[in-house]
Amino acid sequence: MRDWNKYFMDLAIQASTMATCDRLHVGCVLVKDKRVISTGFNGSISGHPHCDEVGHLLNDEGRCIRTVHAEQNAILDCARRGVVTEGACAYVTHEPCEHCTRSLAQAGIKTVFFQEGYENKWNAKFNTDMHWIQLER
After folding, report:
1. Closest Cα to residue 31, out of 136, 112, 93, 99?
2. Rounded CA gap, 92 and 132, in Å?
3. Which of 2, 32, 24 shows the shortest CA–CA distance to 115?
4. Are 35 and 72 in contact (CB under 8 A)?
5. Positive/negative CA dihedral, 84, 133, 106, 87
6. Cα pseudo-dihedral 99, 52, 44, 122, rounded to 10
7. Concatenated DSSP letters for the chain?
8. What residues are labeled active site?
9. pTM (2 decimals)?
10. Do 33 and 4 contact (CB within 8 A), yes or no?
11. Are 99 and 77 within 8 A, CB to CB?
């Protein structure tokens, strides 16, 4: 029997190895009809210096703002290529932050699978129309 969740999560884990912010390596795979439509990892804006080259740019909350998050990179890749995300699923190595949760919801993502939990009191405000599923390792 095929385990699609494991397959797509393994791809997200592989994508995370390309991350350039060493605070957390995150990978995301967007899937529609059991087909990968995009991948993303956390890294700087194309053409800009990366954290692993010049260091972190931390905001007042201690979050690195130099990087574009994996979920955002996957969504933006679809936007650049004209790929429809409505009704897709996201496989993410770590539970999305509230910013990425809003972006995923706005992009029409219906289900989010993740492995590592992320304590965040705001996600419940934004993921109400999505299936939110933590997968075991």
Report:
1. 112
2. 11
3. 24
4. no
5. positive
6. 0
7. ---HHHHHHHHHHHHHTT---TT---EEEEEETTEEEEEEE-EEPTTSPPHHHH---B-TTS-B-SEEPHHHHHHHHHHHHT---TT-EEEEEEPPPHHHHHHHHHTT--EEEEEE----SSHHHH-TTSEEEEPP-
8. 71
9. 0.94
10. no
11. no
Report the alpha-carbon distance of residue 29 to residue 122 in Å, rounded: 23
What 111-120 contacts at long range (C-beta under 8 Å, 24+ apart), as own/partner pairs, is: 113/5, 113/8, 113/9, 113/89, 115/9, 118/94, 120/95
The predicted-structure confidence for 36-47, as pLDDT tens digits, reads as follows: 999 999 999 999
- Which residue is associated with the tokens 């590592």? 116
pLDDT tens digits along 31-81: 999 999 999 999 999 999 999 999 999 999 888 899 999 999 999 999 999
Q: Count Cα neighbours of 36 within 13 Å in the Cβ-side half-sphere.
A: 18
Q: What's the full length of the chain, in residues?
A: 137
